[in-house]
Amino acid sequence: MALVGTFLKGTTRVGYNYGVKKKIVNPLQSRVLYNLLNKAKKTQFGKDHDFASILQQIDICDAYRKKVPLFTYEDFFDPYIKKQLEGEKNMAWPNKINHFALSSGTTNDSSKRIPVSDQMIRQFQRTTLEQVLRLHELNLPNEFFQAVVLTIGGSTKLTEEKHYFEGDLSGILQKNKSFIYKLFSKPGNKIAQIKDWNEKLDQIVKHAPKWDVGVIAGAPSWILMLLERIIEKYELKNIHEIWPNFRLLLHGGVFLDTYKGKIEALCSKQVYFINTYLASEGYFAFQKNHSDEGMTLLTKHGVYYEFLEEKYFNHINEGKSLRNLPTLLLNEIEENKNYALIISTSSGLWRYFMGDVIKFCDFPKRQFHITGRVKHTLNIAGEHLSVENMNRAVLETSNKLGLSSNEFCVVPNELKNGHNWYVGTDKPADAQEFADELDRCLEALNDDYVYVRKYHLKKPSVRVLPIQLFYDFMEEKGKLGGQHKFPRVLNKTQLADWEDFLRRRV
Description:
Layout: H1 2-21, H2 30-40, H3 44-48, H4 51-55, H5 60-67, H6 73-85, E1 99-102, E2 113-116, H7 118-133, E3 148-152, E4 159-160, E5 165-167, H8 169-175, H9 179-183, E6 185-186, H10 189-192, H11 197-207, E7 213-218, H12 220-233, E8 248-251, H13 257-265, E9 272-279, E10 282-286, E11 295-297, E12 303-309, H14 313-317, E13 338-345, E14 352-362, E15 367-373, H15 387-401, E16 407-413, E17 418-425, H16 431-445, H17 447-455, E18 461-466, H18 468-476, H19 492-505
Parallel strand pairs: 1-5, 3-6, 3-7, 7-8, 8-9, 17-18
Antiparallel strand pairs: 1-2, 4-5, 9-10, 10-11, 11-15, 12-13, 13-14, 14-15, 16-17
Helix pairs in contact: 11-12, 12-13, 15-16, 16-17
């Protein structure tokens, strides 16, 4: 009985420390943070930032944000990731990190090596299973569940370095998939490992008639390209002539709006579009039902969230340190406001600045949209244009002018107090007409834009280009396919490369 008494005493002590002694101000996330800190308190990062002391505080969420600074990747690399790459253990997460995901980034960004722990891999697997189990709500036919999942991603081939494996996240997850899951996955290891995007696409097109595809997962831009090639190759009226059970598209990485209509036009049956927020740093959200307005934040899946208010975005874009900027907890945010996402994860990323911007559309349900990137916001005169605004304006302009404009990019021109737009279209278009309509759409979408257009900001300048040029530029940079995407707002380096490319090609 003494053993039972000891066990019960220990259980009540833990319960008291967590549920009574601790001040629970962030109920959905406090336990997640407690578990993360407790797990990593003996690591080098945990010692450097005194996790043991934070765990003793009444309000651990507030103590954590006061004790630990915010980190960018560059801030975090030298003290911790660099040593993990050299094989050191217990740096920011217990034991050794065996896998690092190379972030895909935009066309000119250099790859980052993001730690992926064994615990994080298990979290990816559990979340994927949870998403699969929700398919019953769609009431799909029995034949659908006998079909396979086609993943359109980067190369799954991992590179073995001295102390770790590195490569695309899809390769890390593929390596750890169960045998049963692999049976229902395409395109298969041989094709999935191909690094050249066009070669991989050719192989998928070649094998397409042999597969019964029910689900396609990937970035909408590359899924659209694949479907168009299959239909052209086999002279089909629509994709359902070859894949009759294709009913579900899992997408992420880029905004869907500019691609959805064209994908639906290639189908003869209803296809459900389910949005996912899966990044090298973690699996943060997915659309639990196709009719939901947004994705649901996963609050019990090993990731702790904080939020940075939009008023600090200019501070970051000016190159100033974000280490001591104040953050909000999940219970402190409001609907319909933009926030930059800050994460702490079971791979040992602590108060890590993701750069993504989200906006909650239904806070009680924790549903939100990704509205862009902090560094992709246009704000030279107070217009506060998000990538969401830009995508919507280009889509509406294209529809009104009878065009298809899947790709575009923008450059803030502070000298001329305006924005220079490069828009890819499927057929020739009048640049001035596009600029006039684009201006009207932006005014309808953004009140700040309306005000600054009256007094400060000039009408947008538009250059219309063949859409293929955008893909050719990405191919030249070795960034074609997978999760790579063309940057919507170009920085100075990207602009120089882009204009040099256009001088050579146009």
